[in-house]
Write a structure and sequence with these properties.
The chain is of the alpha/beta class. Helices cover 31% and strands 24% of the residues. The chain is built from 10 helices and 17 strands. It has a 5-stranded parallel sheet with strand order 3-2-1-6-17, with helices on both faces. A 5-stranded parallel sheet has the order 8-15-9-10-11. Strands 12-13-14 form a 3-stranded antiparallel sheet, with no helix packed on it. The two termini are 31 Å apart. Strand 9, helix 6 and strand 10 form a beta-alpha-beta unit. It folds into 2 domains: 16-124 and 270-344, FAD/NAD(P)-binding domain (3-Layer(bba) Sandwich); 127-266, FAD/NAD(P)-binding domain. Helix 1 (24-35) runs parallel beside helix 9 (304-323) and helix 5 packs across helix 6 (176-187).
Length: 348
Amino acid sequence: MKFYICRGKAEPKPFKIAIIGAGPAGLTAAGYLACKGYEVHVYEKMPEGGGMVAFAIPETRIPVKTVRDGVRELEKLGVQFHFRTKVVYDSPRELGDEWAEHFVSLEKLLGEFDALLIATGAWKPRKLKVPGAELPGVFDALTLLHHVKMARIGYYPWDRIPEVKGKRIVVIGAGYTAVDVAIEARLLGADKVTMVYRRSIEDSYARAEIRNLISEGLEFIEHASPVRILGEKRVQGVEFARTEIVEGSVVSTAERFTVDADLVAYAIGQLPTSPIREVVCANEKILKEAGIFFAGDVVAPRNIGTAMREGRARAREIEEWLLSKAPRRVFPVPVAARLISSVTNGKC
């Protein structure tokens, strides 16, 4: 997987850049900046690079070998990786934190580097808030995919993965994460996979992939939203309400139906996970004054291509900022965090 390609590396430039997060956005930015002659350090809590591409997306879609090959190319360009290292400020715990062995403060990086790119992705799944969601056998899709992929590439033993063979699987949602769960469920031998979506298949940006899965046996139910998870000691099914689209919004009707399930995976979105907890996105002027830039899913979860394009775009902005004659305003981290938060109030 090529994160950035250049014919030759430029002469060294007297600037150091820290990139937090080794997903598609961070790696693409690292490649661009290294090609331009900058000293680039990438900090990543996981044991190797790739982010969700390496540690959640099924091998049948993107083999981890292609990601590893791309990281090796960046190393040849001089990018310095600091794996199993989490950058912290007021960061809450999140998926993948168990791999971190070293912790570096955001304050330290701001003091040592000329610019900083935060590309930490979206490692926090949105929770399903219906009765029964805490029953054994109910999983958020991101965690389930992460565990399956970690087992497939040798980091986890398979006994950490729930038994899927011969089971009835219900997937709530119809994005790429839901599609990936359906793919893995079939590969692991599920007896039946049912995907349920509150809108129509035409409203899903993964509709082409879903249609392909339908042709291979996936049951797809549209215009339905979960009301409660059924079961006593573990999940036995899901009760859904039929939905209607009224002036663009999803509205539940009084009609109810039940789908039997041995395992439920909900894929209803992910939340950005930044070292500065309050920041989702921020005013560009404030960020540039502080020397802090954001790229990829930490701004808003989207797709791999968008993250890579954004990583390249932010890298160019960093270069322009470093080469400009405007003096850098260095804020202590708490001040920078307050400035950014005051501009956005935590919203885009």
